[in-house]
Specification:
The chain has twelve helices and nine strands. By secondary structure, it is α/β, with parallel strands linked by helices. The chain binds phosphoric acid mono(formamide)ester (CP) and norvaline.
Length: 337
Amino acid sequence: MIYPSNTLTSNNLLGMTQLSTDDIASIFHTAAHMKKSPKDHRAALDGKAVMLLFEKPSLRTRVSFEVGGAKLGASVVYMDHGSSRIGEREAVKDYARNLERWCDLIVARTFSHTTIEELARHTDIPVINGLSDLEHPCQALADFFTLSEVFGELKGMKIAYIGDGNNVCHSLMLGAAKLGMDLMIIAPEGYEPAPEIVSHSLRLARATGAELTITDEIEAVHGRRAVYTDTWVSMGDEREAGPRRAAFAEHQVNEVVMAMAAPDAVFMHCLPAHRGAEVTDAVIDSPQSVVYDQAENRMHVQNAVMAHLLGAASLAGAAETYENVEVKSAKRRVEAA
Ligand code: CP
Ligand code: NVA
């Protein structure tokens, strides 16, 4: 079994901005191998401790990290911050400096993205963003991995995101830009993605040939091979629920919308879904829906990310990739010198 050192560009996964296109390819390669041959990876994180620090509820992120970590031999500790924010009882800096004495990696789910950045600033152990107000990189990685399983090549693929331009949309946008995809964002006025994420994605798109378009017209879903949506009321937005439901009412993904997409289009959702709101039962329960594949793949891509960040990506049976990865990281070291 080969255990290379961290082969990713960054020591953390705070957002999609930290991953190069090569990093995404390496993660997908490891994730595919882990999914196919889980027994080869049973000891990848042997003796490692993973800390989950969550300020918001979770089904998928919590369970996929807990079960996923255990499948790689790690112990995973969950700390519930549902009733108090990280940094209230003691400074974020002190969380980071205590946790690194016991743990090897932190996964944080926070209201404010700056809390995750602050954790990462004050510790040398890797920090993974398990969702913040700005990004949800683990979700986007699982989504692109799922699309690659269904359709193969991602470059140039035409997909649509319909709904709120926030965390999930941001990570999809940055990822699509890095992967050279063609992403149509359909968001009602006032709910478009953040301008700094848009401009960063457009800069990335110039290098990869990606196409990124933002509109409020639902007809723009025409011919798209994936139709993705998210809740209209994200965690933390509950006080604005009324106006949000009104603003998004015309942006429901239903059978009429799916009929405008490509004939082989898939329906995607990060979940949890609000059936009858952003998506109808008929769509989410249809054969076009890949939502539970996305959920399953959260575990495989996150396990790959953890293994890479902790220098334990077992690439047994993938020697060629291992060599390529080594060449790339050696090149990076030369460039950095
Ligand atoms: N998609 C996702 O992150 O789900 P949870 O909120 O249940 O973790
Ligand atoms: N945008 C949603 C995603 C949940 C996984 C939220 O932040 O609540």
